[in-house]
Amino acid sequence: MTKRTSTQAEPFLQCAGCKKILFAMEFEQNLRVCPHCGHHHRLPARQRIAMTFDEGSFEELDADLRSGNPLGFPDYQDKLEAAEARTGFFDSVVSGRAKLFDAPVSAAVADFAFMGGSMGSAAGEKIARTLERAAEEHIPAIVFCASGGARMQEGLLSLMQMAKTTAAAQRCAQSGCPYFAVFTDPTMAGVLASYASVADVILAEPKALVGFAGARVAKQAGVGKVPDDFQTAEYAHAHGMIDKIVHRKEMRQTLGTLVKLMTTGRRATVGSRRG
Amino acid sequence: MAKTWREWERPLIELEEGLVKLKAMAREAESPRREELETNIAQFERRRDNYIDVMYSRLGPWEKVLVARADKRPYTLDYVAAIFTNFVELEGDRRFGADHAIVGGPALLDEMPCMVIGHQKGRNIQERQYRNFGMARPEGYRKAIRLMEMADRFGLPVVTFIDTPAADPGVESESRGISEAIAAAMFKMFELTVPTVAVVVGEGGSGGAIGIAAANAVLMQEHAIYSVIPPEGCAAILWRTPDKGPQAATALKLTAQHALEYGLVDEIVPEPRGGAHRDPAEAAGLVKEAVLRRLCEMRKLSGEKLREARYQKFRAMGRFELASRRPATSD
Q1: Which domain of life is it from (chain A) (predicted)?
Q2: Which residue does chain B place closest to A194, by CA atoms?
């Protein structure tokens, strides 16, 4: 993570990859990719939406879904409120409709700044609705993942979001609509082991952390020495778990091309909303 | 606080061992010593039963964790042997290798052919290693997918037994896509047009559990646990020490009673007095009754109805609220 997220406050910041000092303005113009080492820094959901979809096309839906601390888990309420204040969202996933090179899509973007992008009931619901919307309206689904995994403060309810979102992905697949997932830093555990991994096409940003067991969990389970590039997008790509690693600058174009290629084949109706 | 089931049950285990000795002595002894011993035995048995009732009537979440992990507790293959007949284990994933932490194959439940799949733990060091401590690798889930596909094709209901600490977190499993394997297994379960029943019989350990638990009916034994993360792992993340597992177990609400309360399982299957490990045969009988009843209920439903019901059931899981205002941002 970069030390600062507000560009107004500080004219300089340090790259999380090469530790070089960067000009904030240049850094932002470069889509938060380090001009020296190419490190892709994490992005707030709003910025991701702005740089990916057609200008002004994003229509946010279900913005008012929030967790109510169903288990009465210690300190959870405080964490939620702090995350709300930090991000301006009620949960880690921002979802809605958007256009990509004029093609309507159902989209969801996760924001790591909201409790590590973790998936509780609200995030799971938004992902499920995003995939269902794609199926119902016959439009492609695009989901940007950024998550440490399930949100343990919601206990078994959060584990069940894995099943719920995967069920919705199955429904999307059954409807014949393509589903594109983009793994950004990090895409881990309960999110990777559910809706993220059942997408038709999986893209990833360079060096994104992608893996099943987080470092602390793995350590407890006695996992020993690991390869240097273990749990990176490059590692997952080399092992066939990711289709393509795409630079942030090329993500919009790549997704646009894929959407076009995969919605103009047999199903000529895809891309036009029903009713 | 006790860290293992043996430690927690020690007084009870000692009583039971004493009883075994007393009974042996009584068999050898002659009158009137024999009558004396028998009176003693009866007293001890009453004490033991009282002890069990006291201990098991107020099991806290952490005690449930210990009991669910007890190595005397019946495992999947014990249930398969007690509930089914003609089980033929099918071991290949047709991709990479044989996994021994998930077992499965067709079997008869009374007259009904079923596909049985479940996590398998081991009891001694060799067995534990062979079963990888019940932590399935990608091949286990891919084998499960294969078996479920066949079940769907041949119209066999699927019965899964859930008992795993977690899916295997090692380097090898990561390299072969453990996450994808779990996700794909769940995905497959949502495609099935046959009735599916999952029974959580021990540890329902996070992704490793839900991978084969997305069933029409999800049952949970009285003292089983089901959790998004092991309590020790939760404590390690939140409080930087695995020693606070008992506190985490309470906070996670990982008991069957909680899962039912939150609508995440359909039914609690009672266990014999003092837990499934005290009377595995009775425990299996209770599981069998519940599974049979659920399958019979579903037999009338069409494939499409089953799939839709399964979808709606999981689709409804979660607790959230609607906010009345946008959150205030700090910047």
Answers
A1: Bacteria
A2: B183
| pLDDT higher than threshold 80 for residue B18 | yes
**Is position A145 annotated in a ligand binding site?**
no
Residues 6+ apart with CB under 8 A from B271: B221, B222, B223, B283, B286
> For position A223, what pLDDT does the model report?
77
Domain count, chain B: 2
Domains of chain A, by residue range, sit at: 1-41, 43-263
pLDDT for A275 equals: 40
Separation in Å, CA of A151 to nearest CA in chain B = 8
Nearest C-alpha neighbor of A126 from the set A95, A147, A87: A95
Contacts of A164 in chain B (CB under 8 A): 314-315, 317-318
Q: Which two tokens stand for residue A254?
A: 């790549």
Q: What pLDDT sits at residue B328?
A: 56
Tell me if the bond preceding A178 is cis, omega within 30° of 0: no
Mutation to test the B interface, candidates A159, A192, A228, A242, most B Cβ within 10 Å: A159
Q: What's the ipTM? A: 0.94
Q: Which residue's entry shows tokens 């579903």? A: B298
CB contact under 8 A, B174 and A73: no
pLDDT value at residue B326: 61
Question: B236 and A216 in contact (C-beta within 8 Å)?
Answer: yes
- B234-241 mean pLDDT: 88
Find out whether A24 and A13 touch, Cβ atoms under 8 Å: yes
At residue B70, does pLDDT exceed 80? yes
The mean per-residue pLDDT over the stretch B82-109 comes to 97
Contact B321 A68 (CB under 8 A): yes
CA distance B136 to chain A (A): 13
Q: Which residues of chain A have pLDDT under 70?
A: 1-9, 216, 266-275
Q: A122, B186: Cβ pair inside 8 Å?
A: no
Same domain? B288 vs B263:
yes
Residues 160-219 of B with CB under 8 A from A: 166-167, 169-171, 173-180, 182-184, 186-187, 190-191, 206-207, 209-211, 213-214
Residue A99's pLDDT is 98
pLDDT at B273 over 80: yes
- Tell me the CA distances in angstroms from B195 to B81, B159, B216, B304, one per residue in order: 21, 9, 7, 11
Q: Any chain A CB within 8 A of the CB of B111?
A: no
Residue B35 in domain:
yes
Give the percent of chain B with pLDDT over 90: 79
| Second CATH level (architecture) for the domain A43-263 | Alpha-Beta Complex (3.90)
pLDDT for position A227: 87
What is the CATH classification number for the domain harbouring B296?
3.90.226.10
Residue B320 belongs to a domain: no
Mutate to test the interface with B, among A119, A153, A160, A201 (most CBs of B within 10 A): A160
Res B329: pLDDT = 55
Contacts for B74 with CB less than 8 Å, ≥ 6 apart: B82, B201, B276, B277, B280, B283, B284
Q: Which of A41, A123, A143, A126 is nearest to A80 (CA)?
A: A123
Q: Is residue B242 part of a domain?
A: yes
Q: Could you tell me if B126 and B32 lie in one domain?
A: no
Boundaries of domain holding B51 = 5-58
pLDDT of residue A3: 44
B31, pLDDT greater than 90: no
